[in-house]
Design goal:
This protein has helices at 9-12, 32-49, 53-59, 66-73, 90-103, 105-125, 128-140, 256-290, 302-330, 336-360, 371-384, 389-401; strands at 145-148, 164-168, 171-182, 189-195, 204-210, 216-220, 232-242, 292-293, 296-297. The protein is of the alpha+beta class and 407 residues long. The protein is globular and about 80 Å long. It binds 3-thiaglutaryl-CoA (TGC) and flavin-adenine dinucleotide.
Length: 407
Amino acid sequence: MSKDTTLGYDDVMFSEEDPSHDFYRLDSKLTARERALRERVSEWVAREFMPSVPKYWEAGDLPRSIAAELGALGVFGSSIDGFGGESLSARATGIIMRELERGDSGLRTFASVQSSLAMNALSFFGSEVQKSQWLPEMRTGERLGCFALTEPGFGSNPGGMETLATRDGSGWILNGRKKWIGNADIADMAIVWAKTVEGDPASIRGFLVETDRPGLHAELMSGKMSLRCARTSELSFDRVSLPADALLERSPSGLSGPLRCLNEARYGIAWGMVGACEACLQEVRGHVLRRESFDVPLGAFQLVQDKLAEMLTFTTHSHVLADRLSELKDSGQCLPEQISLAKYSNVDNARKVAALARELFGGVGILIDHSPMRHLINLESVATYEGTRDIHRLVLGRALTGMQAFR
Ligand code: TGC
Ligand code: FAD
């Protein structure tokens, strides 16, 4: 990393003095506790995580040891009451994701997979025994989970999945393959979604599968050009024997079980995008005030100010949407379609903000020393997982017309 351009602590930690910060004063709604949570997570990201980002990025890795640090910050299980902690407001969960994504989308993904997906699946659908056995240690980060829905042939259409759990006495035999599974090669357990009747999407159920079971194999995927600070694997199940109590007994039959968990992760992404936008805008604002061209700071040019205004506008729109979503969620009124709109449009906004910020950095903007290009590349993954833009617009089209156009 070149010395003169290295990010400083102040470039990353949110600053209430920065005029681009929280333009509509939405953070005035934060309780003292939410404010303290935000400062704690933001400070850890700026001080502890950011200095290692170039190393993680080049290695294409995020070490398992980060789990204990995130656990100590209180990042995992923030919507779950009991089992080693208490539930926080929806806004607090959003704030956690916002601050993690300010650092890197891979970091927020790590928390989403553990907390929004694996822990929530257990909390929604697990037995009391499963919850007591797993949730307390997942909260601290001592144990890690992953969420296995996607298959090589079935991403946008998970209902087509071929992974099959068949009865074997009182237990089950699991066969199949999953792809693109975050944290799978370092996880202690996987929430695996499988059909219990071949070819019947209405038979999909969730299973808690310990990753040391014979016949289960995790293969780390290589060659990712996006979300490099994240471990993503293929999982295969070759006649994996499961006990009867591996079934998530309260998981409904069909896709609504996994989709209920996806709602939680998509909600977190809508908030995470606010953090990615804020990081890009804050960093590039500092740059255009310092960097001179034609003997004046870049920030003095009208075209540059137009780009800054555009970035502020997208950032603010995303923040307003995420904040309102948290109110709808806390009042029990939040619809999956509202989450779809916020997920896809906040990702769209963040892609535009990151691209403008990268442009304003000129040549140095392609170096790992600066965040916008890294955010921009990461956002290719975020735009793809948890439902692509196309899928979420089709969800909205269905809500508006009553006709589904997926098939
Ligand atoms: P469809 O017929 O629409 O629905 C099947 C059943 O599910 C119910 N449902 C929902 N329930 C809860 N929340 C939602 N958002 C729901 N949407 C639908 C629905 O009422 C029905 O219930 P029931 O009782 O009648 O059975 O299903 P479909 O097969 O037509 O598919 C719909 C579609 C395309 C929207 C869905 O499959 C979809 O969302 N596809 C995208 C797949 C996706 O997002 N995968 C994500 C994998 S995990 C991941 O990417 C992690 S990345 C890491 C990170 O999060 O950071
Ligand atoms: P496809 O479904 O093949 O889609 C390809 C293109 O076709 C897209 O542009 C899509 O919008 C479009 N398309 C598809 N269907 C339609 C349609 N009906 N109408 C119009 N256009 C359509 N999954 C997990 O289960 N767990 C994880 O932890 C996880 N982590 C991930 C991490 C990363 C980095 C990535 C990239 C993916 C991850 N995924 C995970 C998988 C992710 O959810 C899928 O990649 C995503 O759902 C899209 O599926 P696909 O890649 O098969 O694309």
